[in-house]
Amino acid sequence: MYDVEAIRQLFPILQRRVGDYPLVYLDSANTSQKPQQVVDAIAEHYLQHNANVARAMHLLGAEATGAFEGARAQVAAFVGAARPEEIVFTKNASEALNLAANTLGAKLGPGDEIVISVMEHHSNIVPWQLIAQRTGATLRWFDVTDEGRLDLEAAERDALINERTKVVSLTWVSNVLGTRNPVADIAAQAHAVGAVMVVDASQAVPHQAIDVAMLGADLVAFTGHKMCGPTGVGVLWGRFDLLESLPPFLGGGEMIEIVEMERSTYAAPPARFEAGTPPIAQAVGLGAAVEFLTGIGMDAIEAHEHEITAYALAKLTAIEGLSILGPTEAVERGSAISFNLDGVHPHDVMQVLDSRGVAIRGGHHCARPLHRRLGHQSSTRASSYLYTTPAEIDALADALVFTRDYFAPRLGGVR
What we know:
alpha/beta; Aspartate Aminotransferase, domain 1; 7-stranded mixed β-sheet; 17 strands; transferase
């Protein structure tokens, strides 16, 4: 049985109060909270094993290298990688996506096409814009329906993925709408025309079991801080044969094989893409987070989140004056729920809720094109995780009703 109260006891910050209110943390799509186990692993590394990796030939160096490479093996097993060398550590998912864009971009030129979608996080838009500008390739994108799903019919009608397509890069789960996209089906379409499939899995890997082989992608990016790990560490998984064919992204120590003044040769993956001192303690913390999540069970976490999301959607759709962006049923969607209160700016909603201990996010969530497409300047987002309780959803709903009624006289409404 999933014991959410026992899980919450493993997160010291969740015991905090905000003034007279208990903390209700509903901003996990932004960053998740960290269990004591992860904090302790990072502290122990710094206090007992701190050294640089791969170059310090002493006991501490060997311990640090073992811990760093051990974390790589843990992450590889967690996502079903064929071998640890398919895991490249970056500083976040944004860097992982930039790595993908810049290295794949070396093979692009005029006449080639890159396909993304209008629902992407800016980190999966801007790098491809830059590559298109640099190479002369054309950037195209999936539109979305008014319900917040990829418009697959329009994409097929317009032959969005075609013989000119060289890269398709999509989010698996939208950080705004919660929409879960059929990336495996789209990967099959991409491969049918010889294109590479890149997946931004930042909002998927923390919440569900993943097997990269079954996903059908060629490169998958995600980040540690959304999955109970520390900030400062991200991951790019790639098929090893593809990684071997890609050029370096950054130059510096440890990514080289031989350096001469005239030229250099480069190390095999993943070292080729990890120039300089990597995020050592952060990787150790991510390994601890993987161990923590595995101990609870990703299937159990997914089931809990599905239940919480369905409950939250029911509570929010019952609030007069509140409109949800994206799917309103817990079907093929993640736990992030974005919405607006009629006539109340999301920043005002966020501020009032914060005064009542409810932590959410207001803004365009690094997805401005999506908001424009749906006719919104911005939105308010509540996002749950493995530690969220129905009582916290009740607190959110109560705070939103309070906020609506607080602003009603100014808006000329009567409640």
